[in-house]
């Protein structure tokens, strides 16, 4: 079962990330709308919520970040860059950025920290289908070109930094367990899920 995505939370984080990356205290609404793929309704709702939390202030066609918001924005931007740098080892800058944009909205702070730690390991891992039954490992990467398929897999809880165990196999699927949930992965998809054996960690 896919995780539910909190659209409002995602847009709020994206606004703060953009302000954290640009390091500008003030940014135009038009710039925000160009960067974020969402309706004006959701963007306006996110801005109102950020104002209620005292993270930003609206000034006509601009938004200004507060001192409290600046700290949050810097943390979000730092986390984004840390994750993106990890994926740049196996992808172009643009592809690493796209994967990070998808991934960061699904993962916890703990998983984000795990991804940072993975960057210290050598190699890119081995395909999930080569893992022994009942062996637990940690996901290193998901090498899928189709961004919609990638997001669907990530929404199921299968993403870098998360622990995964192969429970059984069939002729066309690999049954895995992630956070107590059993998931059947097509063998072709499983070939693209790269893992580090836990004894390596």
Low-confidence stretches: none
* Number of H/I helices: 8
Strand order of the largest sheet: 4-9-5-6-7-8
Proportion of residues in helical segments: 40-55%
Number of domains: 3
User: SSE string, helix = H, strand = E?
Assistant: HEHHEEHHHEEHEEEHE
Q: Judging by the overall fold, what is the CATH architecture of the largest domain?
A: Roll
In what range is the share of β-strand residues? 15-25%
CATH topology term of the largest domain: SH3 type barrels
Number of β-strand runs: 9
* CATH homolog superfamily of the largest domain: Ferrous iron transport protein A (FeoA)
Our Rg estimate from Cα atoms comes to: 19 Å
End-to-end span in angstroms? 28 Å
CATH class of the largest domain: Mainly Beta
Largest sheet: 6 strands, antiparallel
Task: Characterise this structure.
The mean pLDDT is 87. The chain has helices spanning 7-22, 29-35, 40-52, 67-87, 93-103, 109-118, 147-155, 187-191, and strands spanning 26-28, 56-59, 62-65, 126-127, 136-142, 163-169, 173-178, 181-186, 193-197. It has 3 domains: 7-74, Winged helix-like DNA-binding domain superfamily/Winged helix DNA-binding domain (Arc Repressor Mutant, subunit A, Orthogonal Bundle); 76-118, no CATH class; 126-200, SH3 type barrels (Roll). Helix 1 crosses helix 3 and helix 1 crosses helix 4. The protein starts with 6 loop residues before the first helix and ends with a strand. With 201 residues, it is α+β, with helices and mostly antiparallel strands. The chain is 46% helix and 22% strand. The chain is built from 8 helices and 9 strands. The strands form 2 sheets. The protein has a 6-stranded antiparallel beta sheet. A 3-stranded antiparallel beta sheet has the order 1-3-2. InterPro entries: DtxR_MntR_Metal-Reg (IPR050536), Fe-transptr_FeoA-like (IPR007167), Fe_dep_repressor (IPR001367), FeoA_core_dom (IPR038157), Iron_dep_repressor (IPR022689), Transcriptional_repressor_C (IPR008988), WH-like_DNA-bd_sf (IPR036388), WH_DNA-bd_sf (IPR036390). GO terms for molecular function: DNA-binding transcription factor activity; protein dimerization activity; transition metal ion binding.
